[in-house]
Amino acid sequence: MKKFDKDRLILGLAGPALALVVAVALTSLVLLVSGRDPIEPYQIMFDSASYVDVQVLIINQAGTYYLAALAVAVGFRMNLFNIGVDGQYRLAAMVAALVGANVGLPGPLRIALIVLVAMLVGALWSGIAGILKTSRGVSEVVSTIMLNAIATSLVAWLILPKNFGVQPAGSNNLTTGDIPESAWFPGLSLGPEAGEIYGFTFVAVACGVIYWFVLGRTRFGFDLRATGASESAAQASGVDAKKMVLTSMLLSGAVAGLVGMPTLLGDTHTYSIDFPAGIGFMGITIALLGRNNPVGIALSALLMAFLVKSSASLDQHGYEKEIADIMQGLIVISVVVSYELVRRYGLRRQQQKVGEELAAGGALKTEKEEAAL
Amino acid sequence: MRRITRIVTVGATTAALALTATACGNKSSSDTASSGDSAGAKAAIAYDVGGRGDQSFNDAAFAGLEKAQKDLKIKGSAAEPSDGEADADKIQRLTELARAGNNPVIGVGFAYAPAIKKVAAKFPKTTFGIIDDASVTDKNIANLVFNEEQGSYLAGVAAAKVSKSKTVGFIGGVETPLIKKFEAGFEQGVTDTDPKVKVLSQYLTQPPNFDGFSKPDLGKAAAQGQLDKKADVIYAAAGLAGSGSIEAAAKAGKWAIGVDSDQYNQKGLATYKDSILTSVTKDVADSVFNLIKSVQDGKPQSGEIRYGLDKDGVGLADSNPAFTKMTDVIGAVDKAKQEIIDGKITVKTTP
């Protein structure tokens, strides 16, 4: 039976904990150096986050971030760095919005179609990088960054009024037309003051469970993680590494396609030129901070959403809300450093332990002996 | 020791995370705001992407607010957006500003349209302003819109007149319908004046990449490309990025046309001011001030408030003496201006 490993859990938590403490300390230092109160901004942010309407904003944002981070994490587990989540979700949301506004299907079917189209488009876009990698050995880091730029241009071209876009009368915006109300994804309303939690936020949670199950509890997940850990070893044990690269890239893109859905189905009901951008990059930060663990990612997503949403009110109190940006940047740096530190510490500790056990003479018991005892 | 510090750090983070995850309360952020605080009149603006310091649109709105603070003795406040935010965040921001007793609350930029529509319905006694959008209407919404194409038309007339190489350039910051109005007007102005003059058009970036409004190096590179194609007048409608175009044109000894404010008088561009033929002005500051004043006077503006050539809401700056000396150019510009005001010329809004 697998024992609950306390040591591993503590070490696992120490990484992000160390990173956060360092990031907060450094942010305070920045505040001090620039002659500001080093504590008050945090108080303002916590105050702001105690309001129920801000909490709803945080949760909704966290749901979106969560999907983006899952998309990145699928790649990470396979040792693939999908920087293209940003382009994948924007293109996916745009095409899905277009299909949603123009295909005549009854409500729920239309929602299903929108979501399906988004996943397919996301997968298609990341699949290009996957095929380039498996067939030509192109680094996915380079190709996905470039595909981001191409997605931007492609969306800009598709949304021109002469192609598929719509310019509402009197507006300077371009949209893909409105998705009819029957196909709005119902949310959980918390009263007129609080607003509503997007229904898709719950889908995001479900995606987290699926992620956990598929990667941790299936043969496919095992193959994926094995290939990520060592491609040659996996190949030797009969895993088709190339196929795994392509599959996980497609999977990552399909999840990325969902990133725009909470906003599209729960709020805007159209893709316009001011549709939220840059969430893919936030997803990378969150996946890193959450160590690709579904629960870790959820907590990180909440933390980042908290930083972004609660910092909005800093403006009104004479602080720059960019304080939160500084903090996010510092978290990313300290995460990388602290994980390495904790990893080395853990390694040393393990060696020490084995050494101690050997010295005590009672080491190297086999499982059989243990069971016999 | 080591063990204790580790446990403490773990504990601290878990607590912090738990706080963010479970912080619960039933108050809403707008409850605390003192709506009855009538110690002084208050007005607020909510910035567009880029925020203050963009040397263009948002700064112009702030200038209007500042003027109102001085002349009308009101208390002004402003709020910045965050990157990649959704309509829900804009609604939240406008609601907070309205609840805090600000009147009017002005959304800078068309992206605020859906949010203004929803929030205005919740605060029927507050006047809301939105710049560059006429698609959302209500009794308490003032749509502050500009005929950018008319000012640009005049720039086109001037460019066609001064061009010797018969090639002029247009540089748009970000490819949006708003900037296309500048392009359309400019192109029409050039062609109507001299059909033989060729117009080179280029956009720096496409949304959602708004670098084209903020990165001067992009404007500079684009201007260089047009200069290489023999353009000798370059009109850049690209916010801060346009200063790069002005620099490139000035260094090549060619003409540049500025945008939004009178760039001949801008300190940052003093080195190149002799090459700034003129600027297409768009008086966002004035429109913000007028709206605040109308609320103060008890007659709040509502519906579409259009600023065209007739009201000097848009126009052509004439602070460069080299420009005012070109009497034939000035004559042509004035004639075109009169014809637009009289309705003899209709300027297109799309290229």
From TrEMBL, chain A:
<protein>
    <submittedName>
        <fullName>ABC transporter permease</fullName>
    </submittedName>
</protein>
<keyword id="KW-1003">Cell membrane</keyword>
<keyword id="KW-1133">Transmembrane helix</keyword>
<feature type="transmembrane region" description="Helical">
    <location>
        <begin position="296"/>
        <end position="314"/>
    </location>
</feature>
<keyword id="KW-0812">Transmembrane</keyword>
<feature type="transmembrane region" description="Helical">
    <location>
        <begin position="9"/>
        <end position="34"/>
    </location>
</feature>
<feature type="transmembrane region" description="Helical">
    <location>
        <begin position="54"/>
        <end position="76"/>
    </location>
</feature>
<dbReference type="Pfam" id="PF02653">
    <property type="entry name" value="BPD_transp_2"/>
</dbReference>
<feature type="transmembrane region" description="Helical">
    <location>
        <begin position="111"/>
        <end position="132"/>
    </location>
</feature>
<feature type="transmembrane region" description="Helical">
    <location>
        <begin position="197"/>
        <end position="215"/>
    </location>
</feature>
<feature type="transmembrane region" description="Helical">
    <location>
        <begin position="271"/>
        <end position="289"/>
    </location>
</feature>
<feature type="transmembrane region" description="Helical">
    <location>
        <begin position="326"/>
        <end position="342"/>
    </location>
</feature>
<feature type="transmembrane region" description="Helical">
    <location>
        <begin position="88"/>
        <end position="105"/>
    </location>
</feature>
<keyword id="KW-0472">Membrane</keyword>
<dbReference type="InterPro" id="IPR001851">
    <property type="entry name" value="ABC_transp_permease"/>
</dbReference>
<dbReference type="GO" id="GO:0005886">
    <property type="term" value="C:plasma membrane"/>
</dbReference>
<feature type="transmembrane region" description="Helical">
    <location>
        <begin position="141"/>
        <end position="160"/>
    </location>
</feature>
<feature type="transmembrane region" description="Helical">
    <location>
        <begin position="245"/>
        <end position="265"/>
    </location>
</feature>
<dbReference type="GO" id="GO:0022857">
    <property type="term" value="F:transmembrane transporter activity"/>
</dbReference>
From TrEMBL, chain B:
<dbReference type="Pfam" id="PF02608">
    <property type="entry name" value="Bmp"/>
</dbReference>
<keyword id="KW-0449">Lipoprotein</keyword>
<dbReference type="InterPro" id="IPR003760">
    <property type="entry name" value="PnrA-like"/>
</dbReference>
<keyword id="KW-0472">Membrane</keyword>
<keyword id="KW-0732">Signal</keyword>
<feature type="signal peptide">
    <location>
        <begin position="1"/>
        <end position="23"/>
    </location>
</feature>
<comment type="similarity">
    <text>Belongs to the BMP lipoprotein family.</text>
</comment>
<dbReference type="GO" id="GO:0005886">
    <property type="term" value="C:plasma membrane"/>
</dbReference>
<feature type="domain" description="ABC transporter substrate-binding protein PnrA-like">
    <location>
        <begin position="46"/>
        <end position="342"/>
    </location>
</feature>
<protein>
    <submittedName>
        <fullName>BMP family ABC transporter substrate-binding protein</fullName>
    </submittedName>
</protein>
<dbReference type="InterPro" id="IPR050957">
    <property type="entry name" value="BMP_lipoprotein"/>
</dbReference>
<keyword id="KW-1003">Cell membrane</keyword>
<dbReference type="InterPro" id="IPR028082">
    <property type="entry name" value="Peripla_BP_I"/>
</dbReference>
